[in-house]
Amino acid sequence: MDYPTVFEAAMSTPEAFWRERASEIEWFEFPRTILDQDDNGAYRWFRGGKLNTAWLALDRHVENGRGYETALICDSPVTGTKSRYSFREMADWVATVAGALGSLGVTKGDRVIIYMPMIPEAVVGMLACARIGAIHSVVFGGFAAPELAVRIDDAKPKVILSASCGIEFQTVIPYKPLVDGARRLAEHEVDHCVVLQREQCQAKMGASDLDWQEWVAGANPVAPVPVAATDPLYILYTSGTTGKPKGVLRDNGGHAVALNYSMRAIYDCAPGDVYWAASDVGWVVGHSYIVYGPLIAGCTTILYEGKPVRTPDAGALWRVISEYGVKCFFTAPTAFRAVKKEDPEAREKSKYDLRCLETVFVAGERLDPPTYEWLGENLGVPIIDHWWQTETGWSICAKMMGLDDAAAIETRAGSPTFPMPGYDLKILDDDGNELGPDQEGNVVVAEPLPPGALATIWGDHDRYFDAYFSTYANHYLTGDGGFRDADGYVYIMGRVDDVMNVAGHRLSTGELEEVVASHPAVAECAVIGMADEDKGQIPLGLLALKDGVNEDPKALEAALVAMVRADVGAFANFKRAVVVNRLPKTRSGKILRQVIRKLVDGLPYDIPSTIDDPSILDELHQTLIDEGVMASR
What is the pLDDT of residues 77-121, one digit of tens each? Predict the structure, then answer.
């Protein structure tokens, strides 16, 4: 079917549309109702249905005769190891670890925190929780002890599954001291911590700690536990404006239906295809498209413990794609910008046969047009920018490569194309009025959100409504600003609070960054609005240059000022562009624009737990002083 037909069906007859999608997975009991509301007014999908997500992801394929096929490929350039696991091997392993969790008293509804690097045991731990109906909460390995403690107190887990260390490039990061510190800080007492000892670092064990290998060796495999479609599958914490992380709660039924549908309709992947999402299981991409989505769809998925560059070089991504025959590749723009920075001519790519690759999907932050064009020129396959959030669990906007009219729908630089079926997307002004084409405003989605979106905030249903539905009645507030053009293409220009008001003119950071990033010397950039007594705000550009580029900073600044003046207008008042060594980012590669803005304005700010390297902020601060930016304030 074509996109207009599919989208209209989901909008006009949502229950019929999602009933059909629900019939595409196997249930223990098919849902009695497709869509209704709970006593608090929240919409719920597939009430009355019974299923098990781990069984869908593994055992089902074994029972259907595909047990010998590869489910999981693990590739770790930082340790020099590679391994493959079939669906049968994974199902048996998960059943045993599920039994081991049961031996510690973990049952349906209990919580388990998983604090592990990108190793197969992390995936097995997630699926083992799902098998017995326990609720897992994966916390990015290496999070500081206070941040882990906050999550312990919120989720109140019985058990923590961890490892002795993680590895970043060649640096070994001991995990056990962080876990121990978090347990000391937390008010909630965790019964046990199970530790997988890695040869790069041996953890010191305590009285309540268990060795992973010994723990599993004494366990008996258990059968999957049927759970309700509306029962929780996992909690994943995301940033909150109050400073306290929000525990996004995902249910089993809607999650399985949406991800199974997305693998075919969006990514055009079928059983046996090799799919790679180069993310981390600590992020939503890792949940949806390293673990659950590909396995439920019967694809082979790849777990990669490495980086896009320097593990060992800028050809790392191409090597993995070629070696394992990846059909569909998904990562964040920052990964490609890192490759582009170290290998701007993409010479490393020529070492590998990439004929297996059919599509590249990019998400996690806005795909800037220069990176989009660089990818298109060098790979010769469709480059699909798509937009979604931790809260939604799958795409809000994308190009649906699995539909009949995919080839006829063009992609446009800077746009994630069109809303997905089930997402009634609107652009509203601050008063709730819907805006017309090319008018930038607040991006919202009318209720009900489709299956797979968050069910609530763990332990705080009031916060769920306050955070997402209080600004505009019956509309989910994405927190992003954007617009639709005359053809309906959606453009996401950044968080609403990243919009600058320069002498009454609303300017998005994305609009200015698009121009700045197009300069051939610029590897990546951030544009923020800094406070100005006369104009309210004025833009400041921060630039990281490509490797090997020697450009006079003042000449570059003058060139960029001229480019912005020509492409955006003199009213943008873009006059400062400062070259920096590095930009502060999260571990997933998102530039910390809000933190930068507060730093520049001399306002207090919290260092996010997700920051990749806190020392970059001090380095940036000194650069801004040296360049007169801070002094001029």
Answer: 999 999 999 999 999 999 999 999 999 999 999 999 999 999 999
Judge contact between 490 and 387, C-beta under 8 A: yes
Tens-digit pLDDT profile for residues 406-448:
999 999 999 999 999 999 999 999 999 999 999 999 999 999 9
Contact between 627 and 556 under an 8 Å Cβ cutoff? The reply is no
Chain centroid, CA 587 distance in Å: 11
Q: Domain of 158?
A: 88-225
At which of 181, 200, 225 does a domain end? 225
Continuous H helices in 569-614: 593-600
Q: Are strands 536-545 and 576-579 parallel, antiparallel or unpaired?
A: parallel
Which tokens sit at 530?
Answer: 């800094």
Could you tell me which of 620, 612, 621 has the C-alpha nearest to residue 589?
612
Mean per-residue pLDDT of the chain = 94
Kindly report whether the peptide bond that precedes residue 312 is cis, defined as omega within 30 degrees of 0.
yes
pLDDT at residue 565, as a whole number? 86
Cα distance between residue 591 and residue 585, in whole Å = 4
Under 8 Å CB-to-CB from 257, ≥6 apart: which residues? 18, 21, 22, 24, 25, 45, 46, 451, 452
Asked whether residue 122 is assigned to any structural domain, the reply reads: yes
DSSP annotation of 202: P
SS3 181: helix
Report the CATH number at residue 110.
3.40.50.980
Q: What is the pLDDT of residue 504?
A: 63
Q: Is residue 209 assigned to a domain?
A: yes
pLDDT score for 369? 87
Q: Which two tokens stand for residue 54?
A: 């781990």
Q: For 602-621, write each residue's pLDDT tens digit.
A: 888 888 878 888 899 999 99
486-510: burial string, b at 16+ Cβ within 10 Å, e else: eeebbbbbbbbebbbebeeeebbbb
Residue 8 placed within a domain: no
Q: State pTM to two decimals.
A: 0.89
Burial class (CB in 10 A: 0-12, 13-18, 19+), 52: buried
Q: What stretch of H or E contains 82? A: strand 81-86
pLDDT in tens, 269-316: 999 999 999 999 999 999 999 999 999 999 999 999 999 999 999 999
* CB proximity list for 77: less than 8 A, separation 6 or greater: 305, 306, 311, 312, 316
Asked whether residue 631 carries a pLDDT value surpassing 70, the answer given is: no
Cα separations in angstroms, 485 against 414, 438, 488, 567: 12, 5, 5, 18
Nearest to 364 by CA among 572, 179, 585: 585
Rounded to whole angstroms, the Cα distance separating 51 from 230 reads 10
616 and 582 in contact (C-beta within 8 Å)?
yes
74 lies in some domain:
no
Q: How far apart are CA 439 and CA 485, in angstroms?
A: 8
- Write down the pLDDT at residue 535: 79
CATH code of the domain containing 583? 3.30.300.30
Domain count, the chain: 2
Domain's final residue, options 225, 259, 285:
225
Distances (CA, A) of 442 to 241, 478, 563, 592, 624: 17, 8, 27, 20, 32
First to last CA, the chain: 57
